[in-house]
Each structure stands twice: as structure tokens, then as C-alpha cells.
Amino acid sequence: MELWELGAWDITKKVKAKEISAQEVLEAHLSRISEVDPAVCAFLSVLEAEARIAASRVDAKIAKGEDPGILAGVPCAVKDNLNIKGTACTCGSKMLENYISPYTATAIARMSEQGAIITGKTNLDEFAMGSSTERSAFVATRNPWDVDRVPGGSSGGSAAAVAAGMSAVALGSDTGGSIRQPAAFTGIVGMKPTYGRVSRYGLVAFASSLDQIGPFARDVRDAALFMEAIAGFDPADSTSAERPAVPWSKRLDRPVKGLRAGVPKELLGFGVSEGVKSAFENVLSQMADLGVIIEETSLPSLAYALDVYYVIAPAEASSNLARFDGVRYGLSKRGKGYLDMYRETRAEGFGPEVRRRIMLGTFVLSADQYDAYYLRAAKIRTLIRRDFERAFQTYDVLLSPTTPTVAFKLGDESGDPMTRYLADVMTVSANLAGIPALSVPCGFAEPAGEGTSGRELPCGLQIMGKPFDEETVLTVGYAVESFAREEMEEKSALMRRNLILAKECEPVD
Amino acid sequence: MTERAYDMTIGLEVHVELLTQSKMFCRCSTRFGDPPNTNVCPVCMGFPGSLPVPNLEAVKLGVRAALGLGAKVNLSSGFDRKNYFYPDLTKGYQITQYRTPLGQDGFIEIAEPRKKIRIRRVHLEEDTGKSIHAGDDITTADYTLIDFNRSGVPLIEIVSEPDMNSPEEARQYLEKLQRILRFAGVSDVKMEEGSMRVDCNISVTPKGSDRRGTPVEIKNLSSFRAVVKALSYEFDRQVAALEAGESILRETRHWDEAKERTHPMRTKESSEDYRYFPEPDLPLLVLEEAFIEEVRRTMPRLPDEIVAYYKEKLGLPEYDAQVLTLDPNLSSFFDRCVEQGADPKMAANWIMGDILGYMNRQGLTYEQIPVSPENLVEMLGLIASGAISGKIAKDVLVKVIETGRKPSVIVKEEGLTQVSDEGELLAIIEEVIAANPGPVQDVKNGKEKAIGFLVGQVMKATKGRANPAKVNIMLKEKILS
């Protein structure tokens, strides 16, 4: 087994036992990046020098007998909308192409303290707006399972890096599914924690009331371990909860027998492909075999979740992105007067999807439209929260496919924005309700409508839980991933080997 | 006069900087006058990914202001975003309180005519950076420099109802507001340093009309005097326009201090839509009853209460009580004098007369009262015991101020003690009687006034040190007996 094939759990164990050094692990990953990233384009920048210093520090600590932390020596890629002092933070946008962060995000500082090695910054849809990572201003990231397909988004770079063996774990952000959807598309684990569980300080805001930072990993235990490092109250984020992290990674093998799982029928009504549906049903029956009580249930307000999401998220985004004005940092075009400065800076700095959402948000917040759109959406959001509260009086978890389809082809996003927005239907409600949600691989399906190519792509199961009950969500995920563990490992290993033969990707025009 | 045929309605919006050590949502210093852009951080500079954390001390001062203005404090309020673009606004929005203010439904009572001006709301918000235009304004300047030291400084905005009907009432409201906030320790409320900023809304209607006039907002007012002048100017301008059959535009006008006139800034119809919405980065601001009670309990005494005390318990006239409560430093100076045994009326007279007179001449502020209460009290004691005359005391006070030495020491060293010794006085009185036969005869003839001249002569001969009351009695005895 190559060092880059190891998961986070095994790496820390071996590094702490001095079987391998953090520096050896890092070098293996850096070579893996230079070998396959030309075909995947997951990274926007690789922080070799900084990573080498961090790895040598971990090794030095171990040599001195000091505690190197729970992520000692684990290479970690970070979505490029998280600030790390002294390094670039582009947000996938021309607006911040040459921007250097003056400070470090809390989640980054915490994982570094626990010995994680930050290897680089990963690609994303511009300002995290999109679900394919094609909307980066710099390059379209490829799905390692099929480089003609998208890895999902917006955290597609982080997902692809982990799936392709370039990073053991990675950090992403999830506003409407931006961790879970790419995790499902790339056959890995991705978690959106409860709102307030992980500090948002240092995450460039898309929609402040929906954004959460969360982990990508190749199995549930690695994701749980990573969660332990980054979770917890942060006085710098007024919306972070005064809840300490839990040793989740050590509590995964509790029996799931007798747990109650609800399947909201509202989430199965939206164009779920046959392949995804059958993978989902297959998992449900295996869960039932383990003694999980599975029932169909109804959360009527979920029928409006997508509409509510596409009012609230753009509204907050239009305000959050107002700071990019060319005055203090980032792109700055000097027109004739200050109004020209705004117009030219923002027209050149933002791509079409970002501009579309700023316009949408500006419209729904305008005095004449506020009551009809924003206020109404906020009220329905309350109903959605209540529906979840009611459902969680009966069920320990709620289940759905993570996405209606498997990964789509590059370029498919160019069509009607409404169709693209529909793909977020499964994931947005967890953000609206602020509840934890995990995507775990649950098998493979053929892409619909492409004939019988014989090509299979991974799909994901979404497990949603009660606020701050990450423990149950992770426990169920741990049980589910065991169903197809062998198939998954075998196919992943093959996929990673084949990547070296893939063609190099070209930058977007 | 045609103006008599019109009424004016005035409402005021006042922004006040709070006396906190650090900013509203970060830990940067609020110190005034530091080099530009030195008290800044990612939060108050609006860097991407930074988040606001409310300053508890600012909330406390906001509650204190609300209580001081007789307002109801809302146990649950929240923050909202006010969205607009301007280069000194770092995030593209200002965090303010739009839906529910910290306090509401307060009032300020003014004296002439005696009436209550209602206060609609008292709310917390953050200040913007300060733009310095190389030219008149941002549209015509060659360039604009921005100092972000002020960005994020905590403010409260106090919005009155349109309850004032003359510039004079507006002035009284502002003075009273300033005094209350100063005594409450909420702000130093200095218009010249920008820690108090006033915007006026004025509308004019024909007398007896039940319709509201079109409100016009006036900005750029840097003193109370400017407020009065601008309101008077604006009233005249609007009356003239109405008389000429023109309609009044709903607009914001800029007060030009040099030309003493207003000119239009932008019309309200086309004004910006601020797209207010709840600030998602901050939870609701929920206060406990006990917190508010604690603020109430530790609230410094306010001017109205102190005035009542001075009048009822110390027997001071209204005027004296008002002057002594112009400023907390002044009233606490007076209080300390009284505590140390000074006669309240005597102390008030000396403070309002000689001390404030001296401070005025020297351009000193109320923080710079040039004499200690101990020294003033000692000097008042010397007067009361007859050791020095009031006239001599005026000179002694100046010497105390300029040398910082104790009054008793100055009096002793310079031999200023009042002459009350009858033997010593008798010799001088006999000399004066001998030298002024005319006035002496007048006194004998019953012309009481002539005695004053003779007293004056004795005072002159003693260089002011004689006790004038005693001299008076002795002269009468000597001449008439």
C-alpha cells in the first residue's frame, strides 16, 4: 500500500508510533499531487514550503515525546474560501485572484494545532455558488471517477483531492449541499455539521445563516476524527454554539438496532434517477436487516425548501458580497468617479453566476419585494424547522439519497439555471433547518439517459439528524458504509490507478 | 409679517459616539485623534470571512442612555443590515437596529415653553470610516482619503418625534439631551469632535392646516448655533417658496456654514433603498431584567434630579441650579464644596461668577476647573470669619489659581487680613473725618449717602483691608454722637 492511500486514522496512528514520519507522508502526497492533479485540477495552490515546515514540527514534537495532536501528520486540503494568514484566498474569483489573507480561520487554526498538515487550497465554484466546480474563474475540476464529469460543487476541489488520493482529508463549506453533493459524486464521506457546531470565523461568507464548514474523508471514522479537531465554541463567531466537541471517532460502533429512521416522501418526488433510487432502496433494506426501523414519513413544508433556499441564500449573498468594492483589497478598477469604480470592479471581478445571485438577492430584499419574497421565505423556513422538530420526535434520523442523479458531464451546467438549482433539492433543507447531515457512499449507479455505457458512478446516502446529534448521524453512517466497503475499496483503488493515464485538463476560457 | 401665517414642525435625529474603550464589534481602540488607519483589524475593515462580536459595554451604555431618556428598554431586540455603497462603509452595509430598537418611547422636557419632546427610538449601531475629500464632496474631489479608525465605533441614534416648533425649541432639546448623556456618562457629546452629530427634519405648513408639510432634511450641522441658523434659514426659504406658489421638494439639504445657507444634496424620491434585513451573523440581543436593573441601579444622577435637589434641599434659585448642572464636572465640583462645609449660595456665587468668568477668559473647559474645592472652601471660610473682605477675596482667588497655593497662606504672606481692630480703625477714621469736613457736615445734616464716601476713604487708606460694615458703624457713631 502506498502512503497516500492511508486514511487519517491510520496515518496518525503510524506517525505517533514512529512507524512513518509526517514528512514521509507529506512527500508521498506531494508527489501524488504532482502526478495526478494535472488531470483532476483539484488544487488552486499547493503550499509545499509551509506544509514541509508543519510536518517537520510534528515529527519534532513526536521525537521530544510531546503530544502531536489527534490529526498528527494528516495531510489536509482546504477549500479556497477559508483564510490562512499569509497565503492566497481566491474564492475561485478574479475578484480575489491576488488577495493574501491577513488572518487565519478558527477551523484552520484548530486543525493545525492538532497536527494536520495543510497541503494546499482547493478549487470551488466562485464564492461557493454552484454545484459543479465549473464556475471557478480559473479551472474546472474533474471527477476522478470520470474526468469528463464534474466532481460536484461547490467544494469540488476538496472532494476530488480526497477521492483521487491527493489528500487524506479535506475541508469544505456547505451552504446548500456544497460538501454532501460532491462527496456523493466522488464516492467519499462528507459532513455538514449542525449550524453553530464549527466556527465560521475566517470562512468567506456566501449565506451566513446557512454556511457551515465540514470535513471530507474516505471513511466515516476519518470524518469523525476531523470533526473532533474543528468543532467547538469560538468567541469570534457569535453564532457558534457553546457545545464542546465530542470524541465521535471512538463512539461509532454502537449498535444501530432499534433506531428509527424516517424517509421523507417529499425528497423522493423530484426526478430521482432509477439507478440512484435502486441504490438507495438497497441500502434501506440492508439497514432494515440490521434492525433499523424504517418508515416513510412526510414533512410537507419540504416541498418549498428549494424556493425558500433560492430566496434566502441570494439575499444574504447580495449583502455579504457588497464588501468587494475595489476600495481596500482585491481587484480594483479606477473609473472616473467612485460609482464607476464600483461598476467596473464588480463587473470584471464577478462571474455570471455570482452576478445573477447578487441581482436575485438585491431584488428580493428591495423595499417593494421584501414582504413577498424574503419575509415569506423566512416564515416558511420556520415551518421547515418545525416539520423537522416534529419528525425528530419520532425518528432518530431521516434518510434520502444525497443527490437525484450521479455526477453529470462537464458543460451540462451551462443550461437553464432553474434545472441546475433543482439538483440541490435533497440537500438544502438541512441548511435551512440548521441540522447535521452526512453523505456516505451507498453503491454505484449508471448515469440516466446515456444508454447502457456500463460505466458506474458512485452515489450517496444522506443521513440527517437532530441538532447537535452528530453522534447518531455518524453512527448510522458508519454502519451503512460497511455494506459496500469491499466493493468501494476495490473500485476506488482501480479508479486511482487509472487516473495517471487520464488526460490533462485545460483551464477555462 | 407673512411668516406668522406659517407653522414649522421639527424632528431631530442625533448620533452619539459611546464612551467605550473598544469598538462595537471588534476589540480595536476607539481613541480619537490617533494616526489614520492605526486602530483597525479584519473585522472593522470588512475583510472577507471576519465576523462581528457585540461589545457588552456598548450595550450597557445604550441601555443607560435609554433609561436616562425615560425610554422603555426592549428585552429582545436585534441587529439588522442597512445596505448601501460608500467607500468609507467597509462591508457594504452598516450593522444597526432597524426592526426593534434597544429603547423606545422616551422623552425630554424643555423649559420654554415647558413641554415634553417625545423620543421615538434609541438604537445601537456602528460608525463608518471618515472620508476626507480633496474638494467639496466625493463627486467633485480629485481624490478622497479614508480613515478607518472611526469604522465600527459604537453609536446610538436618538430619533425624536416631530414635536418641536421653533429653532429655539430644537436648541433646548439638544442642550438638554447633551446634558443628560454627559451626566449619564454615555458619551462626551462633543459636536466639534464629531461625537455628537445632528440631522434636522423640518416641514412648514400654513397656520391652521391639518396637513403635514413636506419634510426636508438638513445635514452637516457642526454646532447648536448652526442648527438654529439652518432651521431659521430653511423656514424662511420654505415660506418664501410656498408664498411664490412653489411646492417643497422632499430632499436632503446641506448646510453651508460659510455662506449661511442650505443647498440640495439629493432628492429623497430617488434616494437609496437600504434593503434592511436581519443580520444573520448575530443572534437576537436578549437582555435579562436583572441586567437592566443593574444598569438602572448604577445610573449616575441626571440633571433634572440634581436641579430639584439644589433647589429643594440647598435652597438655590432655579437659575443657579441650572447653571451648576450644565456639566457633570461643574456640579460635582459644587457638590464637593458643599460636602466640605461651604454655604451653598456662597459657593454657587463664586463658582458662577469669578471661577466661570476666569475659565471663560482663559478658554478652559469644564474638565479644567482651575481651583480645588478644598481651596475654594477655605477661602469662603476666610470671608465668612471676616478674616478677608469679599473684595480682597477676588484677588486672592486669582492668586490661588495662578500659584496653586492655599488661600490662608497667600493672605498671611501678603498681609491681606481684614482690619477689624477698633483701635487701629479709630485712628484712621479720625484722620478721614479731619480731612473731609464737607461730607462730615452732610452726614450730620442727615444725608445718609455721604457716609458711603467716607467709608470709601477709609477703605482706600487701608488698601481695602478694613471691614466695611464695622467702619460704617464706627463712622456714624463718631460723627453723630
How would you describe this structure to a colleague?
The complex is a heterodimer of chains A (509) and B (481). With 509 residues, chain A is of the alpha/beta class. Chain A folds into 2 domains: 3-301 and 380-499, Amidase signature (AS) domain (Amidase signature (AS) enzymes, Alpha-Beta Complex), CATH 3.90.1300; 302-379, no CATH class. Chain A contains 16 helices and 11 strands. Chain A has helices spanning 8-16, 22-40, 48-63, 106-113, 156-163, 180-186, 220-230, 274-289, 305-320, 338-349, 352-365, 371-394, 417-422, 428-433, 470-483, 485-499; strands spanning 43-46, 75-79, 117-122, 169-174, 189-192, 212-217, 260-264, 293-297, 397-401, 437-445, 457-465. Chain A has an 11-stranded mixed sheet, sandwiched between helices. The longest helix of chain A has 24 residues, at 371-394. Chain B is of the alpha+beta class and 481 residues long. Chain B contains 15 helices and 16 strands. Chain B has helices at 56-68, 167-183, 224-243, 289-297, 303-312, 318-324, 328-339, 344-362, 373-384, 390-403, 407-413, 422-435, 437-444, 450-461, 468-480; strands at residues 6-17, 72-73, 76-77, 80-83, 93-96, 103-110, 115-126, 130-133, 144-147, 154-160, 196-206, 216-221, 251-256, 261-267, 277-278, 285-286. Chain B has a 9-stranded mixed sheet with strand order 2-6-7-10-1-11-12-13-14. In chain B, helix 5 crosses helix 6 (318-324), helix 13 (437-444) crosses helix 14 (450-461) and helix 14 crosses helix 15. The model of chain B has no long low-confidence stretch (mean pLDDT 92). The chains are: A alpha/beta (509), B alpha+beta (481). Chains A and B meet through helix 9 of A and strand 15 of B.
